[in-house]
Amino acid sequence: AILLYADSKMATSPLVLRSLAIAIFLLDVGLSALTVPFGGVNDGAYVEWLTSRASRYPSSIFMEGPIAESGAAIHWDIVDAEIHLAVAVRSTGWVGFGISENGGMRGADVVLFSGRETLTDAHITDTLYPLPDKCQNWKLVYSQTKGGFLIFEAVRLLDTGDTQDRKIINDSSLLMPAHRVICAWGEDSGYGYHGENRVKGSIRFFGSDSTGDEWETFGQRMKQEAEGSFELAANNFIIPSEETTYGEFCFFEGDLIREGMPPDTPLHVIGMEPILPKEDMPYIHHFTLYGLPSGESNGSFYCSDTVSALQELAYVWTPGDLPFTLPPNVGSPLGTNGFRSFRLQIHYNNLRKESGIVTNSGVKFYYTSQKREFDLGFFQAGDPLILLRGQTVGGGNRRFSSHNFLCRGECSSVSLSQPITVIREVLHMHSSGRRMYNAHIRDNNVIRVAAADYFDFEQQGGLTIVQEPITVNPGDSFDTKCYYESSEDSVFGLSSRDEMCIAFLAYYPRQTLSNGFPFQCGYNYGIAGQNQCNSDWSKNELIGVKDLHRSFGPAPLICPGPPSTTSKPTKSPTFSPTAKPFSGSSPQPISIGITPIDLPSLPITDANSSAPAFHAGTSRIKVGICVMGLAIVNALIIECIF
User: Which of 70, 317, 319, 626 has the most CB atoms around it within 10 Å of its CB?
Assistant: First the structure.
């Protein structure tokens, strides 16, 4: 119909051309963009670019800004080893686009463009302003500044080999989190404070869904595979006027059946979606969901502080987490021969001690009666039970410190009857956390490192690592280390003002200890005489920020060659939108970027680490904290925080 209309004599009208361009854009993103880019107001310059150049970029997403008719249109294509990117904003001054580790500016890899036709490859550290990279790896292809719009097109290698760049990895598998992205713009002639001119979200650069929208991808998958769903939420809960509250909510088998779960049926949960109304977000620190094998409504037992040790972690949410799609051969056991009741623990964070705040948060489970090959399990390392509660984080006159938890191979030897496959890994600290890693050790060799180089609690309470599925064998060890910058009176504990150090690993097939308890390893974790899963804990005082040994930020010794800026192919490579099925053995880890230099004195072989630059939300999640920072860099004022 669009083509027929375009063929009519009226198609020469500017209004018609604009309508056609927007219609084609909506078709390109699969009609999922419910909001017309930039509100469809005074957008002639953008529409002109759409009709003349947007066809070069088969994938696109519009991230709506907090101000009416604002936002950022991101268009991209992956061609061989390069990313071709186009960014459009309503501005005449400058625009910055970045790959973020945690959803904010700290630790982000950014490209800046100004209306003066200059493109700058930059990075951001704790100083919270962009610093020009030693190696300028982004190359400008095209730009225009007119009609109130700033648009630039640029190209860069996916992996520049530059320690001041984030590697863009193949995230087509739904087992991997999408890349977190940030964008800001302003009207100043030089880079300045953006105010509300900013957005953040997530993009699956390699996904076949042309929008790159994580929520859309999850919804489509559940529509195809799930037979039903139910919610486990603490509805109409009034938060006490206390700074920290842990709410306990139990859902028994009868509750689940009333929510729609089929009775007396073995089921598998195949997708997990957080329920977080926008108004709840400032008050929810995190929540955990535990599954129990009994469906009896014995609330005095299952909902007490001394809950059954047979409970198993079934889901965890921290700020910034998106829906979790399980592999085609994995499900979380539910109903008959699975979890028949759940305990939801929500950490409410009411810093202002407000009264009368009503929340409705929880999780939505999608299930199928088509049982899958493997059950999902969760492994925790570090100090999962917070048994360091009351222990000081720092000490003496040192602001910086580190805490190390070594889970020796004896734990996995007694716990695992076979190799397991880890499909998701989340690193969790609190507000004084600065860096964290979880090293995977085999035969005294570090074979993989999951790292949060710039941990930012305000952006992401738990950082999900961008990595391929990994294999853990019986006898493997884990070395979990957390770095802090804290005051003298900071302690470990349950409050958001206290500290934690926990690594969460979702894996299959699910394993239990010989006494029936869940497989996990932590400080003082010995249960029923099985002390092999007690972690060795040590604490060190550090001199300063250099002792954090971050890998992102230092200038490389040699700059890589520039990417090609020649005309690119019209057809992009094809990538599978879903994870490839796994057979009994899982793929070996692949290298994705960071090699910490302060690990135990073990040889590092096939070291994989990830500096996650991934999912921070989507165009539907527009949550940010904006603080003004100021610095003068190369005579340009650069200040902004997402």
Answer: 317
